[in-house]
Amino acid sequence: MIRLTRLNDEEFVINCNQIERIENIPESNIILANGKHYVVKESVDEIIDRVIEFQAQIYARAQKKNV
Predict the structure, then answer these.
(1) Which InterPro entries has this protein been placed in (predicted)?
(2) Secondary structure (3-state) at 16
(3) Could you give the 3-state DSSP secondary structure of residue 36?
(4) 13, 26, 60, 67: least surrounded by Cβ within 10 Å?
(5) What residues have CB less than 8 Å from 51, skipping those under 6 apart?
């Protein structure tokens, strides 16, 4: 899950595993696998960085449990 900001400054959390694509229009338009879309203030690169960070946290937790 990643935290993002709508254009009206409202923060929300999205399941990044459901992201199908991100368009830059010039805001970032996130399209989910179910067809829903969200326009957010964060850039495409910021969103990608947050997804990578989230996935790294999941991997790190899994590694700790296997030790």
Answers:
(1) SwrD-like (IPR009384)
(2) helix
(3) coil
(4) 67
(5) 2, 16, 19
